[in-house]
């Protein structure tokens, strides 16, 4: 199976330029460098209009100090988006007129615009990877194997294209980082992120997470667990989407506000259902809560060939069948040894996740024929 994107993540990352600041005001430059650092980036500071014009189009965002407006308006630069005039004090009327001449979108004053500016710098400097897809995975009933399937789905995707981010959104679950074989790696967990309320940059998030072979994971570690916060989940999913080709999230069956926030931001939902009557009944009840939140839902069934017919289960639940699989021998042993869920690349689980990836086809990210 081959995954393709419109641009290589590595080449895109190297192509992103630093935000441009045009000013000769040392105090303004110092304050804006501080805000840029909070957004996970740095500024290219130029004081001469001629130098600024040469960099005007390449920068992801252009910040202009009031002191530089006069020289820039002599020969206004080419019109472009993301140009902002930033002042340390209330700007006089002439600043607004000059800002219009150079094509600025607005004139902002610090410190009142601090939070807005950090958010703006975070968004525009994360680069053009912002269309990564988010796939949530949920078990139709307890013991369905959804966490293992989510870990395998992310692992298989990361083996073909990366970056891929795996999220454990179930504080009562078994721990997806252990199942993925990444629990021994250093990095941030949910506990540290839940203590922050700021804007998250995609590159800073990915750099902070445990990762290997293109797969980064956000789990719970060995510390205590608590309920997720909807605001933090929104920031994490947004940052992970901007910095990843694919985001896979293991979610619990109970849609509390944080889980609902994650599902609302997901492009696809994969429901794992064992082939038993009780599991199908439980899945049907669970679907009544989550179906309104996700636009595209697929079914994966699990069970022996002597169990219920997967196609009939798919029809009964009203979901398209992405894959069906039998239980895989020695899967628990592979996980316990820290080898991850895809020790066998030709086993039932590997075939099921690749079939599922093939069904989740999008213009930005698609899988070829299942292996």
Summarize this structure briefly.
The chain is an alpha/beta fold.
Q: Could you please describe the fold and organization of this structure?
A:
With 371 residues, the protein is α/β, with parallel strands linked by helices. It has 16 helices and 15 strands. The chain has helices at residues 9-15, 26-38, 49-55, 69-74, 93-101, 114-125, 146-160, 176-179, 190-194, 202-208, 230-243, 257-264, 277-290, 310-317, 331-336, 348-359, and strands at 3-4, 20-22, 44-46, 62-64, 83-87, 106-109, 133-139, 164-168, 211-212, 215-218, 246-250, 268-274, 297-302, 321-325, 366-367. The strands form 3 sheets. Strands 9-10-8-11-7-12-13-14 form an 8-stranded mixed sheet, with helices on both faces. It has a 5-stranded parallel sheet with strand order 3-2-4-5-6, sandwiched between helices. Strands 1-15 form a two-stranded antiparallel ribbon. β9 (211-212) and β10 form a beta hairpin. The longest helix is centred in the middle third of the chain and has 15 residues, at 146-160. It starts with a strand and ends with a strand. Mean pLDDT is 86; it is low at 1-15 and 362-371.
What order do the helices and strands come in, and which of them pair?
Layout: E1 3-4, H1 9-15, E2 20-22, H2 26-38, E3 44-46, H3 49-55, E4 62-64, H4 69-74, E5 83-87, H5 93-101, E6 106-109, H6 114-125, E7 133-139, H7 146-160, E8 164-168, H8 176-179, H9 190-194, H10 202-208, E9 211-212, E10 215-218, H11 230-243, E11 246-250, H12 257-264, E12 268-274, H13 277-290, E13 297-302, H14 310-317, E14 321-325, H15 331-336, H16 348-359, E15 366-367
Parallel strand pairs: 2-3, 2-4, 4-5, 5-6, 7-11, 7-12, 8-10, 8-11, 12-13, 13-14
Antiparallel strand pairs: 1-15, 9-10
Helix pairs in contact: 7-16, 10-11, 11-12
């Amino acid at each position: 199976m081959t995954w393709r994107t419109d641009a290589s993540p590595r080449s895109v990352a190297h192509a992103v330029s630093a935000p441009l600041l045009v000013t000769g005001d040392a105090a303004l430059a110092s304050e804006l460098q501080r805000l840029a650092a909070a957004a996970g980036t740095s500024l290219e500071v130029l004081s001469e209009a001629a130098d600024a014009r040469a960099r005007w189009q390449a920068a992801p965002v252009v910040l202009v100090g009031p002191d530089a407006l006069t020289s820039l308006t002599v020969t206004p630069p080419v019109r472009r988006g993301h140009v902002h005039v930033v002042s340390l004090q209330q700007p006089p009327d002439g600043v607004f007129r000059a800002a219009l001449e150079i094509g600025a979108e607005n004139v902002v004053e610090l410190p009142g615009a601090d939070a807005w500016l950090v958010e703006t710098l975070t968004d525009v400097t994360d680069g053009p990877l912002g269309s990564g897809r988010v796939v949530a995975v949920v078990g139709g009933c307890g013991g369905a194997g959804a966490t293992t399937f989510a870990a395998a789905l992310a692992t298989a995707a990361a083996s073909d294209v990366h970056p891929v981010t795996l999220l454990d959104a179930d504080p009562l679950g078994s721990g997806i980082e252990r199942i993925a074989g990444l629990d021994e790696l250093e990095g941030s967990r949910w506990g540290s992120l839940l203590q922050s309320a700021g804007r998250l940059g995609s590159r800073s998030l990915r750099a902070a997470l445990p990762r290997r072979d293109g797969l980064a994971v956000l789990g719970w570690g060995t510390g205590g667990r608590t309920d997720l916060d909807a605001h933090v989940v929104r920031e994490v999913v947004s940052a992970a989407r901007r910095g990843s080709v694919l985001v896979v999230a293991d979610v619990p069956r109970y849609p509390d506000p944080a889980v609902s926030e994650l599902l609302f931001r997901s492009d696809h939902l994969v429901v794992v259902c064992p082939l038993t009557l009780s599991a199908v009944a439980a899945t049907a009840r669970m679907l009544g809560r989550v179906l309104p939140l996700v636009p595209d839902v697929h079914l994966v069934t699990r069970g022996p060939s002597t169990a219920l017919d997967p196609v009939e289960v798919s029809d009964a639940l009203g979901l398209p069948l992405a894959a069906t699989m039998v239980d895989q021998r020695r899967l628990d042993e592979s996980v316990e040894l820290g080898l991850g869920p895809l020790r066998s690349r030709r086993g039932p689980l590997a075939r099921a996740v690749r079939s599922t990836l093939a069904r989740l086809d999008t213009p930005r990210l698609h899988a070829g024929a299942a292996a």
